[in-house]
Amino acid sequence: MRWISSLVSIFSIALACAGAFASEDPPDPDFRIRFYERKLEDHPDLFAGHAALGTAYLDKARQSHDVVWIGKARTALERSLKLQPNLNALVAMAALCSFSHRFECALEYAARAASARADDTRIRSIRMEAYLGLGRTDAAKALLESSSPADDDPLLYAARGRWLAELGRYDEARRAFADAAERGRNLGATDLAIWSDTNAAGMLLDSGRAEPALAHLEAASELEASSPPVATALRIHWAEYQHARGEREQALSIYEEILDEAEDPEIARRAFVLAQELGRDEQAQSLFERAERAAESVLAASEIYSLETHARLYADARVKLERAEQLAERNLEWKRDRAARETLEYVRDRLAATRPQ
Question: Helices 228-244 and 47-64 sit at what angle, rounded to 10 degrees?
Fold first, then answer.
């Protein structure tokens, strides 16, 4: 499952770009961070300012993959809620928990937010994410069936695609994502349209059909993303397409460009695999060390969202397999979706191969 490991966080990005955190603020998180940090220097007890700053920190975390922004976001949002319980901080905290793979936490904050606004599409979407992250596909289905947004709401189709993908029903998921992309275009939700076409392509790639994926990737590339993470998601899928076609050089080049912009352990892991396949031992070793450092830095910050990547990295390299098993088992304590289960199976298969028969 090359693409799905990053889908949960990308889904959060898509929601934000589709209006999940609607605001008059410019989309650039650095601008918003500077603005609200200065504002809070003069008004430290402004609960709405702390909520907006926490959301900006979260967007920066999504963009940079630097774990420091996760801690900053959590501190700002907790401060906002301590000053005054408010919907924006609750929703942002739920999104933060989901992004950092603390799905039970996401459901807790989403429930608190829903008590204030039960019909909020943002809250339903985050709950969907969390249910799927926990492997609770029946709860996700029930949530879908209980939702009643407008007929042309692309988020409903995107959520259905996400649920179908988790069940491995790729053709149905592709159609749902394609419908979401079409409706996103019609409503002017460009980033959501890009994200949906990108994941429609992902369904085809994940089911071993690279060539039909091209049409969705080209359709997404015709639009201009305003969100850097959405643009990065599209580039990742272009790399997967090139890899599936055997164009490893081109795929590796895309991953290296992304790594120049953000120290993402998952991207470094994928680049390492490609360098291995190309027989570039020195480059592969450098990329392995880069991925390992990035994953370890997340754990050192008491975060857990790199566990799956960390375990797969060691299994890919066939090193530290006992630790890989521990990481994969720990990951399952927090994240129990199909990708998490398959990661543990993959690690154990590699470990079994090293033991005498």
Answer: 20
